[in-house]
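FAQ: What does the model actually see?

It sees only this:
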Amino acid sequence: MPPYLIGLSTGLILAVSTGPIFLTLLQKSLQHGFKKSLFFVAGVGIADSGIIFLTWLGMSQVAGDEPSPWLALGGGLLLIVFGLTFVFRKEKQNEEPKIETDKKKHLAHAGLFMQGLMLGAINPVVWGFWAAMSNYAITTFSNRQAEFFYFLGILNTVWVTDTLKAYFAPKLKTYLSQKVQRYLRIGIGVVLIGLGLKLIIENISSL
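And it is asked to produce this:
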């Protein structure tokens, strides 16, 4: 399968994630409307792109021209840890989108953009996730071009689904119960654990 298509499918992991960024996006859309919330989406997208570049660059320097099997094993373990975190993450009863009623209801476009940018940039989970994905890309694909199209596929999925989330925010808020969020997190965790096991199984014989 082409790297771009693999990236599109991998992006679904983030698309169904119900973490702080997703819930904040719903809140911004409900509060400011669909068009203004797109500036928040753009901020998150820029943050993701920058983090991908930095983590991919760092992993590439570590891996060199021929990635070590140990790097793949480490990446596999990291993915498994992330997956277990999603599976066993405890519920937070207050973790649901809310409509703010403060004086900043008509927040400027630049303010929404900066909020999305900062929320993505300061979240350590986001950095860890993209580091794991960078490791996966480097140890799975044979060249930098393939890695680029893999990440492009992920980002395209995320951008499109985030836009759809903003548009359908009122309906999503209605159906986004704690039980549904729990099932989504478990599903994401199982996928990440599967990717981690795949990396380990494919590279353990090379040690």
